[in-house]
Amino acid sequence: MPDDVRKTVTVHIERSLFGLSAEGSSVVWTDLPMGPTGAVHVTDGTALFISNAQEHDATLTLVISDQRTEFAGEGFVLIGSWPFSSHLGTAVLDTVSAGGDIGFRLEPNTVYTMHAWRRGGETAPELFYGELRGVTPKTGLEDYLVEFVPSGLQDPVVEGRRSRSLPPVDETGQRPANWVE
Q1: Of 31, 30, 51, nearest to 40 (Cα)?
Q2: Which of 49, 91, 159, 174 has the highest count of CB atoms within 10 angstroms of its CB?
Q3: Measured CA distances, 36 to 10, 28, 40, 41, 117 (Å)
């Protein structure tokens, strides 16, 4: 699979949480429901992942595919599938203490079906509190695979209007009169 449609990163999960957002989404990942453990909540280009273990490092692989993968790999279990709006196209990974662009791009203004798989989720609490107790850093508890399958176009986002990294502009591309640089 080409590198431009697949990206694997390590996510440092803190307090059992991490978020994945499309730049331009109006939803903040920490505003999504915080329970139960093992869940994923998705709204308008923002996803909140709730791990079954507390602080640890996990592998997160993001993939763009033409159709849903039937077999994600040994031990992977499908958590669920949701609509996901790409907005400006840049994927942003967030944790409790850090976040930012991870170099993964979706086609802007596109609605995808986001499929999320996890490997190791059911055994993560046992390992976290058992044989990995006192071990730092904790690794190998969970792996995540998130697949994006295009399903249509969304209304275009005016560049910067809903971006967390660009100054606000209106529909005509002008900054508000009270904007100070």
Answers
A1: 51
A2: 49
A3: 23, 18, 9, 10, 17
Radius of gyration of the chain (CA): 17
pLDDT single digits (tens) 63-107: 999 998 888 889 999 999 999 999 999 999 999 888 899 999 999
Which DSSP state fits 20?
Answer: E
Give the residue ranges of DSSP H helices in 17-156.
124-129
Contact at 8 Å (CB) between 125 and 50? no
Instruction: Provide the residue type at 12 as one letter.
Output: H
Tokens of 147: 């697949």
Beta strand pairing call for 139-153 and 56-64: parallel
Tell me 97's DSSP state.
Answer: S
Distance CA 110, CA 86 (A): 5
